[in-house]
Task: structure prediction
Amino acid sequence: MSKGQSGLGKSTLVNTLFKSQVSRKASSWNREEKIPKTVEIKAIGHVIEEGGVKMKLTVIDTPGFGDQINNENCWEPIEKYINEQYEKFLKEEVNIARKKRIPDTRVHCCLYFISPTGHSLRPLDLEFMKHLSKVVNIIPVIAKADTMTLEEKSEFKQRVRKELEVNGIEFYPQKEFDEDLEDKTENDKIRQESMPFAVVGSDKEYQVNGKRVLGRKTPWGIIEVENLNHCEFALLRDFVIRTHLQDLKEVTHNIHYETYRAKRLNDNGGLPPGEGLLGIVLPPVPATPCPTAE
Amino acid sequence: MDKEYVGFAALPNQLHRKSVKKGFDFTLMVAGESGLGKSTLINSLFLTNLYEDRQVPEARARLTQTLTIERRGVEIEEGGVKVKLTLVDTPGFGDSVDCSGCWLPVVRFIEEQFEQYLRDESGLNRKNIQDSRVHCCLYFISPFGRGLRPLDVAFLRAVHEKVNIIPVIGKADALMPKETQALKQKIREQLQEEEINIYQFPDCDSDEDEDFKRQDAEMKESIPFAVVGSCEVVRDGGTRPVRGRCYSWGTVEVENPHHCDFLNLRRMLVQTHLQDLKEVTHDLLYEGYRARCLQSLARPGARDRASRSKLSRQSATEIPLPMLPLADTEKLIREKDEELRRMQEMLEKMQAQMQQNQAQGEQSDAL
Result:
């Protein structure tokens, strides 16, 4: 899922990440395109293939987020959508005659696009991430990072990291879910140095040093998307797709989904919700009597 | 035979000398959401560091921040000409989660300056009227959006009849040339659609040379100006030191017309149209405000401009400017009365003094 105000390059980036037109770009300069009055949720599914491995990728875009004058609670439709997917999965899980492979529409990862102001996070960014880091894996990303020099970038990243920490916002990879020391050191490095990734996206190719590269051509130079000296797109891509894709799914299933499930069961008095209910109520486990001191 | 020479061809020189002696003052407002490079641009434009002691608050602090209006003044001199520049800043604009009505303090501020001027103009002591009216508002549009956002439109509509607006696209080095053109086009269309009146450059005289006309047309075409600001001096591709921003892929030169419209903006704002901005503020915007103000009093004789001269000292203090809360007006009247009384006292004292001197003089004469 990609989130952030319009014009931050979300669609372009997603397309670049998956090297195919998986995100329908609201053509930037389309005259008829108006900013939607409420936050819309647009989910588009694709099947992409590489090296014989097929992946069904669903990209969920949220046009209209943060564009209005009053953006109070504009994260609510998104939270609702995410919870609805958990609900769908839960209902399937609870069914008597379960499907062998439950169709998984849960959101495994949310890329949150931060505007490169160079100052700090915006209040809206804080509010959104506070609410949603509890229900979904959030990966903060600094959009359109070609407006910041190297110094500005590192200063901005430091400030953003500090603000997230001060406000208790746990972005993916969350510290508490590091499984072993190896994971911890690897993730620590990413958390404290690279994130949030400062990225630039592009779907246009240019000729640089005899090679065709994805980039942006300006009168003062060509910004190469996959050049680590220019931006961290390659780091983001490797992180999300090559190393942590499976982990993203696991954390979503084992942690976020379980949290949702536990909450739902508790609300329902220990009973699973919906149809397929056998009416069997497991008796509560009797408390073991405390051994009295002799 | 030589044509007789009277000498009033020297008038412009006299005017020039007087203006230079008097100095110029100019009030510039900058508005737009934070992080668009406003402060850097102002520093670049006037080559001063107006924002030295600035602290940008953290996001949590800005959650409940309301918009404040800050004024900074600086005196700059160049070639013997002094300019007293007042900068009005609007930190907090567009920051909160809920920005409804966040432009109202700005509108109020602009109107207050008009109010103050109106009062001063109608007052007793008109010798040293301080002109604190806002002569121009540079409104910064984000290069990351798809044109004007709802907040931009709301702000512009609220102030366009009260101040000269010059729209500017900040941090324009985020855009490739085609994107810049498309964004400018979109903004121009939106401004037209929403019927927002930005500052119109006057047409150049028909007797100007072609070069000037071409430059003028080019400048008009490039509105809104796509600017990049920087106060750092870097080396460009060659060896010249220029002001710019150094990236790993190249250096953006602030004063390079192929890179951004900074030069155009500076030329237009400072070199050619500063005076016109002041004149439009006075002749058009202020007069419009004044007319609305006086009309709403619905007093016969107060309505048309000609009767203004008939306003005696007495009635001047009687004008209850509708915007002003009653307490303030009374306070003002009291203050002016105090002044009058003091002046009278002084006069009496002087008279007494003179009489005394006269009496002494007579005495000494008599002796």
